[in-house]
Amino acid sequence: MTDLTNDETMVTAAETAMSKLAAVREELGKVIFGQRQVVDETLISVLAGGHALLVGVPGLAKTRLAQSLGTVLGLSEKRVQFTPDLMPSDILGSEILDEDEQGRRSFRFVRGPIFCQLLMADEINRASPRTQAALLQAMQERFVTIAGQTHPLPTPFHVLATQNPIEQEGTYPLPEAQLDRFLLQVNIDYPDEEAERRMMIATTSGQETSPVTALDAESLIAIQALVRRMPVGQKLVDTILALVRAGRPQLKIVSDLENLIAWGPGPRASQALMLAVRVRALIDGRLAPSIEDVKALAAPVLRHRMATTFGARAEGISIDMIIERLCRHVIG
């Protein structure tokens, strides 16, 4: 791993990373139309060493984004379609009884699809809580335990999980404590007219562009290490801490929001925001994050770590609206 203990070495490593990330964004832009913010937020999750929850209606290229990201980053990727009858062993793997030519029997561990570097968990809220918990535990601990034996997951290891926000029949919503395992919740909206036009022509002409590999696992790990060493000013640290704490109703920091927030973000939110703003600065070609990075990433970091009260929902106040008001109060 590169030594980043002095400023000159760090600047050189950062400039190299910026060049590689520019190529990554260019390749992803060839296949994902009109979703620059979505691509960047998903990329931020991976570069920060975390997992992302992609929320959007069907047909908005969530699966294509995950597959393209695996190709461009040079990661082994697999996809699992979550269904109510999916068992933990279908994801993690299981032990089977083998018998050799001499009749001797022994157990052999057969790895599940989770043993990859980028796993797409499609419609994660359709699986049972037991299966969800098995996946989310592996996401946190980076290993699985079967029959008392521990099996480490590949490095790096990232999960991109998807949810459909409009079709909720027969689903099992993720508990709040498990949602916290995702670094960002990336909301995907419909593309604008010009992007949809390009998408329609590109996908029906029989001449679709395929992305090429622009990074590899070793380089990704090096960038993730670089991100954690990027400098963050004291003012920015104070702003992140103030913003996260302002979202906790029991602290009564923002008085007019107390009755609108049911529960607020925990310490993982400030950790996630610290990492995410550094990555955003890096992919934008900057060596240090700014207040604008905090504003841009407040919603994807906080929206799945907070909940509105019944009164707020009755008034039509969404969690993103509350986060916007928190930003105005703390940042201005």
Automatic annotation (TrEMBL):
<dbReference type="InterPro" id="IPR041628">
    <property type="entry name" value="ChlI/MoxR_AAA_lid"/>
</dbReference>
<dbReference type="Pfam" id="PF07726">
    <property type="entry name" value="AAA_3"/>
</dbReference>
<dbReference type="InterPro" id="IPR011703">
    <property type="entry name" value="ATPase_AAA-3"/>
</dbReference>
<protein>
    <submittedName>
        <fullName>MoxR-like ATPase</fullName>
    </submittedName>
</protein>
<keyword id="KW-0067">ATP-binding</keyword>
<keyword id="KW-0547">Nucleotide-binding</keyword>
<dbReference type="Pfam" id="PF17863">
    <property type="entry name" value="AAA_lid_2"/>
</dbReference>
<dbReference type="InterPro" id="IPR050764">
    <property type="entry name" value="CbbQ/NirQ/NorQ/GpvN"/>
</dbReference>
<dbReference type="GO" id="GO:0005524">
    <property type="term" value="F:ATP binding"/>
</dbReference>
<dbReference type="InterPro" id="IPR027417">
    <property type="entry name" value="P-loop_NTPase"/>
</dbReference>
<comment type="similarity">
    <text>Belongs to the MoxR family.</text>
</comment>
<feature type="domain" description="ATPase AAA-3">
    <location>
        <begin position="51"/>
        <end position="184"/>
    </location>
</feature>
<dbReference type="GO" id="GO:0016887">
    <property type="term" value="F:ATP hydrolysis activity"/>
</dbReference>
<feature type="domain" description="ChlI/MoxR AAA lid">
    <location>
        <begin position="260"/>
        <end position="324"/>
    </location>
</feature>
